[in-house]
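ok posting inputs for the BES job
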Amino acid sequence: MNFELTILPLSDIRSDLEVIIIINKNLKHHFVQDKKLLKRAGFSCEQDETCLLIEKNRLYVGAQSLKGAAIRTAAAAAIKALKDTQYKSLKIATYTNKGCTYTLRAMVEGLILGSYSFETYKSKKNKNKIKDITISLEEYKQHKIKIEKASFVIHKAQIIADATNFTRDIVNTTPDDCYPDVMASIAEGLAEDTGLKCNILKPKKLRKEKMETLLAVARASRHKPRVIHLTHKPKGAKKIITLVGKGLTYDSGGLSLKPADYMVTMKSDKSGGSAVLGIMKAVAEMNLPIEVHGFVGAVENMIGGDAYKPDDVLVAKNGKTIEIRNTDAEGRLVLADVLSYAQQEVKADYIFDFATLTGASVVAVGHYTSSIMSHSKKVKKLLVKAANQSGELATALDFNPYLKKTIKSEIADICNISNTRYGGAITAGQFLSEFIDKKHTNKWAHIDIAGPAFVEHPWGENPHGASGAGVRLMVKLLEKLVNTKTEKKGK
Ligand code: BES
Ligand code: ZN
Ligand code: ZN
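and the output
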């Protein structure tokens, strides 16, 4: 998709189609030229409602307000409505709220995210045909916003939305086509394209590093595990961020086998790791002036004579012993070792892990929202705010000492499942916390993306399949961290 910016009014721009966003049902705005026709068509200007006036080559879409989220989903709805048409170019005017450019960013993100479709396995492709988009900055005139600033905003929005789509592609790929070694090759390809440094750890090195819990989860699969380490290290960077992702290329549940209905969609258990790859792509392309490390534990959880078992006791990289009572609680085992390895390799100012860790997170907060857990109130607040500004939904879940006791084991240091059905997202987070060194305690947050990572009923700017959850949230936070001072102690 090519974006072109102009200060010309819409009427002076040539293109196949004109798209008009109607804000808060305001048909009196001078962009709206077909008031009577729209009324006759029964168009009520609801959020994301579209009306294509084919003979006028004009598409109208409703947005509740000028807020980023409303503009983003309206733009996505507009581009989706054009999927089966033959239009190749469109023009659209941007609004501005008191001179701010966030509506422009949201609009571009919505157009790119909304036009996404995954058609790798379809014999007959039906990709969105819109190639050229001209954006009129007509409304900007009264606010003296420079075209250079607007074009920088568009450039960033494109990078972020493309990185989200890159993550969606990886997650949507089937487990037979995307297994740990393939994830590692994707990371290597990304490094080659962007200048990131890439180190891949294979089983021999993983054994040397004593990543025995990760290796145990991987054992029954014919696909050997990989740990990926990508680095973005610009000169003079003053902050270091570590990202860790759960990359279960398939989660059958292992010997604690998932019921048939729950196994479908478990190709999406690599969403956390895929998000880390997408974030690293955006960080490199934006050349953010901070050091960012991306670690991914890429593993397949399968059954077989060689499988790890309930009743096993495993020794994690940090020396803690773990009683296995359910092999379907495998993500925390993989993350335990990758988190330990990441902390050994990098002393970071912040560590964030992304994982489709628990069904309990979905039960707790719903399909649209990520759960955020951390020992630091400040870090939780930073993440929730960044998420909401980025177009993602996230909410904090608090740890407590009573739930912590439920993962105690009679025979080992800790158990991989809780002794209660309730609070499963939190007990999983508290399990991970056991693998965070003291010096990183207040610098770490766990983001459970099990709800929003995979979309079964399209919502907002997300079509069916992977949403790319985590990418926009984290890029937004990283952009903010560039401009804030690091404090010695988080609280
Ligand atoms: N990958 C799943 C969690 C999941 C569930 C992700 C639904 C996306 C949608 C994870 O490995 C898992 O199976 N967790 C178990 C933990 C339980 C055994 C304590 C779960 O949530 O049921
Ligand atoms: Zn599982
Ligand atoms: Zn899993």
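notes: Residues 251, 269, 326, 328-331, 356-360, 362, 417, 424, 450 surround BES (ligand 1) (CB under 6 Å). The chain has a mean pLDDT of 95.
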